[in-house]
Amino acid sequence: MHTQVAALVSPISLILAKLEFIISDGYCGQVNGEKTAHGCTITVCGNGEALVGTFCGRGPCNIFGCDCEGGCLHGHYGESFLQRNRRHNIQLMRTQMITTSSVDAVTGIFSKSRLSQSNQSVHHDASGSSFFSAPRDPLLANFGGSSAECCTTMAKLDFTINDGSCGKVNGERTDYGCTITVCGNGEALVGTYCGRGPCNIFGCACKGGCLHGQYGESFLQRNRRHNVKLMRTQMRKAGLF
Question: For the whole prediction, is pTM greater than 0.90?
Fold first, then answer.
């Protein structure tokens, strides 16, 4: 925690994914999705299940989405959704990571819990490859009086490495292997935000833009010679609340 800017890493219960997909063997409702003009859509928690309520906790959470009874619904979002519904022949077209927050409980500025969309978007092309579009964070940008791009999304990776030590890939040793927090381009987080250069205190308007990429996949690609195996990916968000 960086107290000079009151930075906070959001609990995973606050992070969701809005998926846009097509289904060849069934219909949208069979996987709890909703029909759209271009296919289907669903908002899921990390475990790939449809969001029920406001937060992604296994049980009730406090008004901030923290201290959820039973912990959070962890997983790989889109990948977990595909795995759960593999019999339906689903193709993901787009994955949009979003956060839900109850900032009115802290600041009184917002009247209700709401989704802060476009933290990051993953687009899937016809070949199955994916890429991230520029993230924007309306919540943090509004506090800065601007709609500037914000570089506040990162990923905590838990992994094992067979060809080297944790430090060889800038990771830290844990009881179960290694851990590292990376930006979209797969590089270790340096400082508070994932900007190419200095950012304002909200993590927005970073000089040179944000370090975009595919987080865990980019990390694996950068370190493919070390035979790294990802065990868990936690999407996180640095911000003021």
Answer: no
